């Protein structure tokens, strides 16, 4: 089914530019070539049905019938050879270590400002900087416990960091479910190809959560805090709670008494020590942040300040997601660790720097412009594909609020063979590994590979026509 | 969750049996169709709603109303939908297999409509639904820890089943016979046999009563049999057992109003005879029983499920005060 496959000048994960398969894809390719289309189609339908039955779906809004769809899943896995994975692991470890030191620093001594590495206004004026937590120490000095770092590969195959997600990165359930689905569809692949397992994620996560328990409590009670059943990631919240064997709670299941957080159960109140919260800072506590929030728990911040409850991630980590702060991460690595960054950033221009701004405004049609604090592919201008009106709209927005914008040259994302219903064609992909930070950094060998299913599209977000793939990290290089 | 699945299963069986029953009567006109179907809608308690939505009671409209209509809270689709939403709430507690059955049933149901069911043969459609419901009960039994949650599932199931059985027997009250002389005649007996089949009780009945189907015995069997798992007495006894095992209360005693009510009903069902029931009037007796099941349900809810809502406003105020105290204390 690969006879007519073309790399079309892009960096292709499976095929080198001369059309030869890369060594780590060789065995997979041999197996796929023995599949006929009908068999492939059958396996695909079976996988889709199983996602549907398990309820790994999202609801299509504006449809009163409550139509549910699965996130499209492509059966061709993305493969990462061991040596490449080790490189990524080193880079990600370095990055999360620096980011944690950074968050600790800006909420305590602010050395990075005092020593002139990052100008003060960028930090103090960041939307997700929580000045009210200045001087507050969190257990073990870990702020970012769970980080989803988005990686892409450009035309030369070099991995680049696109963004850090240090608040509530989602999608890890897909990493686990995609693997499950592929194992069912191709049971014989795995043993032969020595694919490293991802199944330890939940137990690793639980270790991290226990590690940060207040007062080093021996057997802490852990809970997952969800915005509720109607949240699009509820499946994932529930999935993780079940895998870890901990309770899943909504705000209304918790109550604060004497600066301690309790779960309301049929047998009375039960104290909770660590909360893996999947609610943003703003909605955590209606007493402190948004009074209109019905998702949160009144008083939870009091308990947090009193040191009786640990939150993962800590409050105030959103600053690391700010795309202007992203610009400074390579400098942070140098400043805190005295090392050169292993994983480079995408070249970035700050609209708030006069010289950069001039360049951005003169080259809008060539650049990708992003708002500093938006995610999901929103608040973005893809210069080369944008209409004149869109470009002018962004020009005005940048002039009005330069602090809120950055620009990057468009990256021609690497491509991966993907089934289109007819044949395999190259589609652009990215990669989100999940980094856990407890008594050590641990990264499950795998992650979420997202794929832009529309031909030529660079947008991999699930809300905009994206799908996903299983990601295999091999024990060796072939 | 389990109540709604039980209800969906019963509705599926009821529709299936009555569609088959119609095959025995040739050339039914509109009036005959109405006489046939209306008691069935009446027994689900939704006759008013049905009349406001449909102009005639034929196989198509009744099936649509009782299977797919979302405005009817007791339609199979509504029940499965509610069961699924409830299951989602306790998704972290029930087993993956239990969830997958409910979810799978829901999605399969969404692929059908009344016409496609009638076209392709209703028998298999309803058979699949019944099988899914039974699969769910079986999985609950074999993949779910038998502790408190399990007992509540059983209570829900048997409460619903007692109610459904009482309603199915009561259908006969609503079914008019073409002629008063037909009592005990062919149509009358066919209807009583349909009642038995709607409770999956046809064979069990014949094991117990070797004779022909007799209305008197059918009512006795479905109401008072101590061992048939769909009789009202059996259902009430079993739910009473599970209810008391939650609070570890011995038989003959009670610690809350739910146990008092279920214990009393259980005793009455044990010491009542079918003669007494017919003296009171079968319909009147069943009607009273249904009301008491509703009361029992509320009592269980009040005892175990209802948690006082948190007053968010008061919580916020209280937390602010605590914060003030710290600030004041320096």
Shape of chain A: globular
Q: Biggest β-sheet of chain B, characterized? A: none
Q: What percent of residues of chain B adopt helix (DSSP H or I)? A: over 70%
Quickly count the domains of chain A.
3
Q: Which two chains form the greatest contact, residue counts included?
A: A-B, 25 and 24 residues
Mean pLDDT of chain B: 88
Rg over C-alpha atoms of chain A, rounded to the nearest angstrom: 23 Å
Quantity of strands of chain A, as a count? 22
First-to-last CA distance of chain A: 22 Å
Largest sheet of chain A: 5 strands, mixed
H/E element sequence of chain B: HHHHHHHHHHHHHHHHH
- Quickly give the structural class of chain A: alpha+beta
Number of domains of chain B: 2
**Contiguous runs where pLDDT drops below 50 for at least 5 residues of chain B:** none
Mean pLDDT of chain A: 91
Q: How are the strands of the largest sheet of chain A arranged? A: 3-22-21-18-17
If you had to describe this structure to a student in words, what would you say it looks like?
The complex is a heterodimer of chains A (478) and B (330). Chain A has 478 residues and is an alpha+beta fold. Chain A has helices at 26-33, 37-54, 82-106, 111-114, 120-124, 172-185, 189-193, 201-211, 234-244, 281-284, 300-305, 323-327, 329-337, 354-362, 388-400, and strands at 57-59, 68-70, 73-80, 146-153, 159-165, 222-225, 247-249, 254-257, 260-265, 268-271, 274-277, 310-312, 349-350, 368-371, 380-382, 405-408, 415-419, 424-432, 434-437, 441-443, 448-452, 466-473. Chain A has 15 helices and 22 strands. Chain B has 330 residues and is mostly helical. Chain B folds into two domains: 1-144, no CATH class; 145-305, no CATH class. Chain B contains 17 helices and no strands. In chain B, helix 1 runs antiparallel to helix 4 (59-68), helix 9 (148-174) packs antiparallel against helix 10 and helix 14 (257-271) packs antiparallel against helix 16. Chain B starts with a helix and ends with a helix. The mean pLDDT of chain B is 88. The A-B interface holds A 52-55, 68, 229, 234, 238, 241-242, 247-248, 252, 255-256, 259, 264, 266, 286-287, 291, 294, 298-299, 302 and B 85, 88-89, 91-92, 96, 99-100, 103-104, 107, 148, 304, 307, 309-310, 312, 315-316, 318-320, 322-323.
